[in-house]
Design goal:
This protein is of the alpha/beta class and 330 residues long. Helices cover 12% and strands 17% of the residues. The protein is elongated. It starts with a helix and ends in a 9-residue tail after the last helix. Keywords: Leucine-rich repeat, Repeat.
């Protein structure tokens, strides 16, 4: 009713002033007394219910400050898109994750700093969250096993934070997961075998951590994977990733790996100089090709190239890891 509309208008006004709205790139209509807040740029409302905002979409908008906790009191939010506002700092209000309607949270490439555990919904098994994108912040602590109970999650992006500990086995319970990105942290331990039992997992990025031990034998059954990033870790043992890449059943298109970490492999044997490359479906990055490639990330041997003819590396770890980065789903 009218009371609800008044309250929501107040909340969005607080949101505007808390995040430096006067200096936003796009602030059209905001806090204009003659306009309904559904006409303020970045707020998308439900066409069937007056005044019901379902999406806050304000990426790359020069927002500065801390997200006010009042935002969690707005009902029926489905999509919160606040990514790429690096001066948005402090703690993100955890109560927003308890919104039963929330389907997408994108706060990637901002300056949030708090334990990641704060952002697990109070009742994860009841959450409808499908995409959780928080890479490129300063989240700390371990990856909560509670994510495994959010069974609707299809995209979990935690890369480039300050996370420690191990990758929880419970992540293998996310039956709808398509993309898991945890690269660029300080994660230790082994790669859980449970991840390769996820039937819809297409992209896995664990690059640039402190992971060790052998690659799980279950990797050989993950035919649906098309992008696998394992580089800059301390894996040992049999290079199952190479075997997986070479297998005719494999759908792998991109693989990033440090070839000399494994037994009986070297740069030439993996990205090397034979005609086998023509039969392979995947590219590979080998750190040993660094000198040829002219960049710290090594070279990429493309399908159809002769082995050893590496193209230049990007010189940027995030760009290399993100060659096949998944697009957000509305």
């Amino acid at each position: 009713g009218t009371k609800r509309l008044f309250l929501d208008r107040y909340i969005y006004s607080v949101f505007f002033f808390s995040l430096g709205g006067r200096h936003w790139v796009d602030k059209e209509g905001w806090v204009n007394a003659s306009l309904p807040y559904c006409d303020w740029s970045g707020l998308n409302c439900d066409a069937n219910v007056a005044g019901r905002v379902n999406t806050v979409q304000m990426e790359r908008n020069n927002m500065t400050g801390t997200v006010p906790p009042e935002l969690a009191k707005v009902q029926f939010l489905r999509n919160v898109r606040l990514g790429s506002n690096p001066n948005m700092t402090g703690a993100f209000p955890p109560a927003i994750l308890d919104q039963f309607a929330l389907r997408l949270l994108n706060i990637a490439f901002n300056g949030f700093e708090q334990p990641l555990a704060d952002l697990v919904p109070t009742s994860p098994e009841r959450s409808g969250l499908g995409q959780f994108l928080v890479e490129g912040n300063r989240f700390t602590g371990t990856i909560p096993s509670g994510f495994g109970q959010i069974t609707r999650l299809s995209n979990l992006e935690l890369s480039d934070n300050r996370l420690t500990g191990t990758i929880p086995t419970e992540l293998g319970l996310m039956s709808n997961l398509e993309r898991l990105a945890v690269g660029g942290n300080k994660l230790r331990g082994t790669l859980p075998t449970s991840l390769f039992g996820l039937r819809f997992l297409e992209e896995l990025d664990v690059a640039d951590n402190l992971l060790s031990g052998p690659l799980p034998i279950t990797l050989e059954n993950a035919w649906q994977l098309f992008s696998l990033s394992l580089s800059q870790n301390n894996f040992t043992g049999v290079n199952r990733a190479r075997q997986f890449c070479d297998a005719p059943e494999s759908g792998l298109e991109d693989m990033f790996i440090d070839c000399d970490d494994f037994e009986n492999t070297d740069a030439n044997g993996f990205c090397g100089d034979g005609s086998e490359q023509l039969l392979r479906d995947c590219d590979c990055v080998c750190s040993e090709l660094e000198a040829q490639a002219g960049g710290p990330d090594g070279g990429v041997a493309k399908k159809g190239q002769r082995r050893g003819q590496a193209v230049p590396g990007t010189g940027n770890r995030r760009q290399v890891r993100g060659v096949r980065r998944a697009r957000e789903k509305a």
